[in-house]
């Protein structure tokens, strides 16, 4: 394909899924020198974010790959013309690449924490080091996070250097809470922001002579604070951040339900919660939802507010920061998205922006069973013919995305 050329709408290219599965396979989960995830402060024996959780999503993606390869055309979803391919990435982002978003001091502190943790393991001591809010460091954390970012770079390369119109980076640990100088919420390096900056400066330009315009659409249940801080005010980089806000009583200064938002935007002394600054800028659209939602409420708001914003950008690349914790039933989620909602959002934007490339990066998701059920339609939305309207929910919003 010539430089800057976009495949026609009648071309259905196979989805390529890149993963850093070596980071979270069963062997890694058993190694004391791996990234072991983050443990619960109230119950140190329990790890809320751990290698096995991500491994189940890798298995779900492989199940979808097998289904697509064997399903006869017309059964369930339309069988694509070509199979889904999965590629294990061996790429680690370099420090110079990480400096696009993160500070030198922060990267040095993260490396040193991992080194100290390794020494603890060798001495037979507890490896978990409190490095940030809900972000423990263990011996393999720095390398695992660099592997996530490098895998996302591979996915960007594939979507720009070939006829691929969509790719996905199935990575762990996630990244959208990691700010330029702080780790938070199981995130250490800002994967989506780094991938967006990498795509913007890529030698392959969708419109020759112009840096690539990239919009990140974060549909994770939680605020993408790290992504927002990483791209704030940067020309050619944009963010649509869908996020849940917990109901709050301004009189008593208390959250009114079980706390589900993150980072916290208010103080609650009884819960020991302090508010975190919210980043805003003209290149950031925050689509906020107060309290538990229905799928259609979220989709209606997206079509009414986010779709015009993204269309005005006319992006070359849409980077999906895919949080499966936005799903109905996730223990940390309240946005109430059904599996078909992921399919509708992603496929709808492919329909609305036929000349853009689409790339996904995995973020949160804390019930492996529910996450797996939502990952499959999200991946199919990146792979299907954008004009196929077999999905009932997608058909309901089909005209809105075309308008």
> In one word, what is the shape?
globular
Largest sheet: 8 strands, parallel
Return the string of H and E elements: EHEEHEHHEEHEHEHEEEEHEHEHH
Oligomerization: single chain
CA radius of gyration is 20 Å
What would you give as the CATH superfamily? Histone deacetylase domain
What would CATH call the class? Alpha Beta
The low-confidence runs, each spanning 5 or more residues with pLDDT under 50, are 1-10
Tell me the distance between the termini. Answer: 30 Å
Strand order of the largest sheet: 4-1-7-14-13-8-9-12
Q: In percent, how much strand structure appears in the residues?
A: 15-25%
The number of helices is 11
Average pLDDT figure = 91
Q: Which CATH architecture?
A: 3-Layer(aba) Sandwich
| Domains (count) | 1
Q: Based on helices, strands and strand pairing, what is the structural class?
A: alpha/beta
Q: How many β strands by DSSP?
A: 14
CATH topology: Arginase, Chain A
Helix content: 25-40%
Structure description:
The protein has 403 residues and is of the alpha/beta class. The protein has one domain: Histone deacetylase domain (Arginase, Chain A). It is built from 11 helices and 14 strands. Strands 4-1-7-14-13-8-9-12 form an 8-stranded parallel sheet, with helices on both faces. Strand 13, helix 9 and strand 14 form a beta-alpha-beta unit. Helix 2 (51-70) crosses helix 10 (368-383), helix 6 (191-200) runs parallel beside helix 7 (225-231) and helix 9 runs parallel beside helix 10. The longest helix has 21 residues, at 141-161. It starts with 15 loop residues before the first strand and ends with a helix. The model is unreliable at 1-10 (pLDDT under 50).
